[in-house]
Amino acid sequence: MGIYILIIIAIYFGALLLISYFVSKKNSDNEAFFLGNRQSPWFIVAIAMVGTSISGVTFVSVPGMVGKFDMTYMQMVFGFVAGYFVIAYLLLPLYYRLSLTTIYGYLDQRFGLYSYKTGASFFILSKIIGAAARLYLVAMILQTLVFSQWGIPFWVTVTGIILLIWGYTFRSGIKTIIWTDTLQTSSLILGAILIIWQVAVKMDMNFPEMVQTIADNEHSRIFVFDDWGSRQNFFKQFLSGMFITIVMTGLDQDMMQKNLTCKNLKDAQKNMVTYGFSFAPINLLFLSLGILLLLFMSRYNISIPENSDQILPMLATEYLGFPVLVFFTIGIIAAAFSSADSALTALTTSVCVDILNIKREDAVKAKKTRKRVHIVVSFAFLLVILLINTIQQENVLDTIYKVASYTYGPLLGLFFFGLFTKINIRDRMVPFICMLAPVLSYVLEYALFKIYDYRVGYEILLFNGLLTAFGLLCISNKKNSKPL
Questions:
Q1: Domain count of the chain?
Q2: Global pTM value
Q3: CA 383, CA 407: separation in Å to the nearest integer?
Q4: Transmembrane ranges (predicted)?
């Protein structure tokens, strides 16, 4: 089995290298790496963004969460769709009007250097943790399926994966990724559809029977309106989903870098709306797969693993046959690479432009600096993944969103304070406010649980953003400045 998986990886990676070669053959300078020369077709960007969002974590964790949370994750997904409209018609016009290379340049123009560096630093921290967690899950699956059987250490497996990703991104960055992620998005969605088909065949279901069975299942519940204390309450989930999308897409250089490669604002908005609408049916597909997997285990008396992230990998490797194993392998590799390659490029861009300010360097020196940073960021990925391996979280997707609620909160506060007020602030104090807000948010979460037995979910992001905005208000100057 292991040799077949390696063959699949080799063929898949060969296709990515081929795309990279043709895309980067004419141009591999920093303008191509950072912005793709602003020539990307909007519909290709929309497809590529789906692949970036639906990582290996989504491919594995979303089907696995059905047994615990039913299909209530769709409440967050509906919030995601609303958030994409906010991004398309509030944030994108701003970014295009200012002709930004990284979106945190807005903070420099609105507040000053310290705010700019703080915003970029929070993004770098958030993205390294989130992207590493996504890649970790897929690395663990490949380690279990193949490499542990040959005595290869986990750190060697992770290093190999990161080297593969570095191999097709180091020349042209985002210009290459727009096209490679289009292939990867198509592969992961096709993989999910083919797995569903194979599971239905093994349970002797045709398509109408499968749809009816999923609809009638006890885990098909989507909406929760009656329990305000539950983390699955609709209003908590919807609002959390909307604001998580705003911060993890609209205030995230990784996601917005693809949008900034479009030819103009109108194309970027078409891309964002199309991408937003596609997110709901795709997640419904993965949740439906989760119900089918539970039904399959029930029919054949298969014990459910304690770790829900292990359900799909276990069934794909031990019970569903070789075709499903092939589809599963292609799906998780496509999902992992499309998420990690984009994050690696965005982090390199942010470090180069926001932290090192390489625009002041001549073109040759700037290109050398970018290549060195690309290597350093890749090494940072490796270290964070190895650190995550010692924590062993049950559901990685839940962990990513929880971490994002704390690390993206200051970004939410900074951007919305800048957009919706005319108040100027003491720029030097911003780093302290942005570090204090997450700490106070954690204290608030702990107090609400201990005093009122209220379980805070991802809505802690809103508290975090509000605390940041309040802190900015406290360090305001008497002078006003116009928002950009």
A1: 1
A2: 0.79
A3: 19
A4: 6-23, 43-66, 72-98, 119-146, 152-170, 182-200, 234-251, 272-296, 316-337, 373-391, 403-420, 432-449, 455-475
